[in-house]
Amino acid sequence: MPDYDPTSDDQLTKERGMCVEGDHHVKKAVEILEKCENRVKSKAYTAETCHQEAMDFMEALDHCVGEKAFKRLV
């Protein structure tokens, strides 16, 4: 999972970082994604991927960032 820095100079990265830290839905999506990644990594072989969990995380993040990310264009 990429790092999102709420102190970044980049507005989109900053808003994503604030969502990862403060939005309940994004936090829940991160938790589910991390559980999936740990489960997949713990198996010697599995066809399971965390694709759906990653997409759910990105959707929650996009929804959170939505209107805020580009409000203050420089």
From TrEMBL:
SUPFAM superfamilies on file: Non-heme 11 kDa protein of cytochrome bc1 complex (Ubiquinol-cytochrome c reductase)
Origin species: Pieris brassicae
Origin: domain of life: Eukaryota
Gene3D superfamilies found in the cross-reference section: Ubiquinol-cytochrome C reductase hinge domain
Ubiquinol-cytochrome C reductase hinge domain sequence ranges: 11-73
Principal location class: mitochondrion
Keywords: Electron transport, Membrane, Mitochondrion, Mitochondrion inner membrane, Respiratory chain, Transport
Name this polypeptide is given: Ubiquinol-cytochrome C reductase hinge domain-containing protein
Keyword RNA-binding: no
Family, per entry: Belongs to the UQCRH/QCR6 family.
InterPro entries the record matches: Ubol_cytC_Rdtase_hinge_dom (IPR023184), Ubol_cytC_Rdtase_hinge_dom_sf (IPR036811)
Annotated localization: Mitochondrion inner membrane
GO cellular component: mitochondrial inner membrane
Pfam family, one: UCR_hinge
